[in-house]
From TrEMBL:
SMART domains: BTB (SM00225). This is BTB domain-containing protein. InterPro entries: BTB/POZ_dom, SKP1/BTB/POZ_sf. It holds the Pfam family BTB. It comes from the Eukaryota. Residues 27-96 form the BTB domain. PANTHER family: BTB DOMAIN-CONTAINING PROTEIN-RELATED (PTHR47843), BTB_POZ DOMAIN PROTEIN (PTHR47843:SF5).
Length: 123
């Protein structure tokens, strides 16, 4: 299910949201990329990202609004996983050990999915 590249911390952030990270319980959408599947929640995605709000939010006419699984393509898988971890209030790089290429990919993902706070953090 979840990739092994990033492990969420056991504490920190808002426990009510943090505890939902990649758990099938209450999940209403699965995000698929890089051969992995992540159990997500439209509420979490839409409250943070105008992109997901447009795609999956109430009144959306896009197919994703009713989809149970959405595949994201053409993005760096590690950056996408970090993006999702960030939405669930996890530190995606607690050791600050990622390369500049990772942060560039994260900046690109944050820009694409309209999450300016993460884009600012990436650089």
């Amino acid at each position: 299910m979840a990739g092994t590249s990033i492990s969420p911390p056991s504490a920190g952030g808002n426990a009510s949201i943090t505890g939902l990270w990649n758990t099938p319980e209450y999940s209403d959408i699965t995000i698929k990329f890089g051969g992995e599947r992540f159990f997500c929640h439209k509420l979490v995605l839409c409250r943070a990202s105008e992109y997901f709000k447009t795609q999956c939010g109430p009144g959306s006419r896009f197919a994703e609004a009713n989809a149970k699984e959405v595949e994201l393509v053409d993005d760096d898988p590690a950056a996408l996983e970090a993006f999702l971890l960030h939405l669930y209030q996890h530190d995606y790089d607690p050791e600050r050990s990622k390369s500049w290429q990772f942060y560039l990919a994260l900046d690109t993902v944050a820009d694409k999915y309209l999450l300016s706070e993460l884009r600012d953090e990436a650089f």
